[in-house]
Amino acid sequence: MPPTIQQPPRARAPRKDAAENRAALIAAAVRVLDRDIDGSLETIAAEAGLTRRAVYGHFATRDDLVREVLTLGAARMAASILPIEHADARVEIALYGATLWREVQHASVTAEFAVRGPHVALVADALEPARAKLRATVRRGVDEGVLRGDIAPDRLARLIERVALDVLAEATHDGLDGRAGHTLVMVAALSVAGLGWREVDELVDRTPELAYEEASNR
To answer: Domains (ranges, CATH) in the chain?
Structure first.
């Protein structure tokens, strides 16, 4: 008989329960860290309904889990901003802020930690596509004369981003509700961009896309 040819072993797909446990751990970490940014691995495991030993099957250390949570969150925020397009650069900037707020309002402590904590460089890399888009929008708005022209566009984009993050910090420490945060992030960002608060109110009132929508819990 001819010799049997051994086929190379196929790569095994992750077991369904393993993938589900990993997802449960990440979701639990978001909830725990939003309550207590120093929440322990044991607390996160208990929140996910798993043992500490089960956690180590997915993450070697608590820091590995935290980095995964922050990187995935930042990538999701960037992905939510990239599809935004509007003919009016002012509206587009407001939509960036409102979208950012919608993505993070149920995890504001975790989100603030992401952009101001020890993993800021890691998060910045994941957010860079969204930052590049904001820079392009600001340049367009300056060129069209609808945004202030006394500050270099790339610097202005950084200032707009910074004030949006300050709204996030305000929400974390003073408990802004969804609607208040949605409005404040647009007012703050567009004020830095050169609009008066009455102009912002008028822009929001006449632009249906800027209306507040309830965000679902994640």
So the answer is: 15-60 (1.10.10), 70-210 (1.10.357)
